[in-house]
């Protein structure tokens, strides 16, 4: 049995679908499983990663876990997984984690690193997936594309290597279903470096109309996002954007090293999600 946590999320949902389609025995964890339409053959269970006691039933009889990184959940999850006899854990970590740093730079890197440390200290066979910026991070642009041809946001020239969630899921499935990935770290990215302005242009090309990215002062964006993003995390996101104007986030070969395929490009991601915009 494979347990998928974050199973209603961008990546976890695809991992679940791929394993279920492959005929694997899969269980999905959600805090509210009754609110979700699950693929057929999937057993859904209630549980909260930050409440280790709630995980015992979910982990019963489980061999491998796809682990969503809920802040602070590392020690509790690890103890529960060891007690249940889990063998393998594939963590959806973050490309922000820096093994060379004395202290992690900001809360995003720090909370992922803490969960990694809990897994390293355990008897579990761990695999860390460290993706760069998700292509799906542009989904909040949809409310702007639905009402016009301009996207207003911070740092037009911030450059990332946006990754399609399907590529992360492909790597996760490989690591969940083989012993060959124990103790390995995978820095994953999309195939190209793109600025926010580039991403807006490509979005427009796929949608068939010119879409421009209009840079607005970062404080205006901070105010807008603060309604739904906690302040320390928001500071961390803004810092990553600011730094990536001068130093683009890296393009890595992590996806291809596992799947043998070039990762899907941003244009493909937009085509796959065009209806959202
Ligand atoms: N976005 C990026 O650019 C980026 C870059 C690098 C790494 N990452 C990593 O990827 C993650 C996002 O992945 P995603 O987009 O697939 O996820 P997502 O769409 O944000 O969904 C995550 C799911 O996790 C579940 N969840 C959240 N807190 C939980 C808890 N305490 N206990 C149990 N389940 C919980 C929720 O499901 P229920 O509501 O059903 O419980 C939620 O639907 C980030 O959090 C980060 O760790 C993201």
UniProtKB/TrEMBL annotation:
Coiled coil: none annotated. Residues 6-178 form the NAD(P)-binding domain. It holds the Pfam family NAD_binding_10. Gene3D superfamilies: NAD(P)-binding Rossmann-like Domain, UDP-galactose 4-epimerase, domain 1. PANTHER family: PRESTALK A DIFFERENTIATION PROTEIN A (PTHR43162:SF1), PTHR43162. This is NAD(P)H-binding protein. It comes from Catenulispora subtropica.
């Amino acid at each position: 049995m494979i347990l998928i946590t974050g199973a209603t999320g961008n990546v976890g949902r695809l991992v679940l679908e791929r394993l279920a389609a492959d005929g694997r025995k899969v269980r999905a964890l959600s805090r509210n499983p009754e609110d979700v339409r699950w693929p057929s053959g999937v057993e859904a269970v209630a549980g909260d990663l930050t409440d280790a006691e709630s995980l015992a039933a979910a982990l019963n009889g489980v061999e491998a876990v796809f682990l969503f990184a809920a802040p602070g959940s590392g020690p509790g999850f690890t103890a529960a997984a060891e007690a249940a006899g889990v063998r393998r854990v594939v963590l959806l970590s973050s490309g922000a984690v820096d093994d060379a740093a004395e202290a992690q730079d900001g809360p995003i890197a720090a909370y992922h690193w803490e969960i990694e440390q809990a897994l390293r200290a355990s008897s579990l066979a761990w695999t860390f997936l460290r993706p760069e910026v998700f292509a799906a991070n542009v989904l909040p642009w949809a409310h702007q594309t639905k009402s016009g041809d301009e996207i207003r946001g911070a740092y037009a020239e911030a450059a990332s290597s946006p990754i399609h969630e399907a590529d992360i899921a492909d790597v996760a499935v490989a690591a969940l279903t083989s012993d060959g990935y124990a103790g390995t770290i995978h820095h994953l990215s999309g195939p190209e470096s793109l600025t926010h302005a580039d991403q807006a242009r490509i979005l427009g090309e796929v949608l068939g109309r010119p879409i421009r990215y209009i840079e607005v002062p970062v404080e205006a964006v901070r105010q807008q996002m603060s309604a739904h993003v906690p302040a320390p995390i928001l500071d961390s996101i803004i810092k990553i954007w600011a730094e990536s104007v001068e130093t683009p986030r890296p393009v890595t070969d992590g996806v291809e090293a596992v799947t043998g395929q070039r990762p899907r490009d941003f244009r493909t991601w937009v085509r796959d999600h065009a209806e959202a915009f």
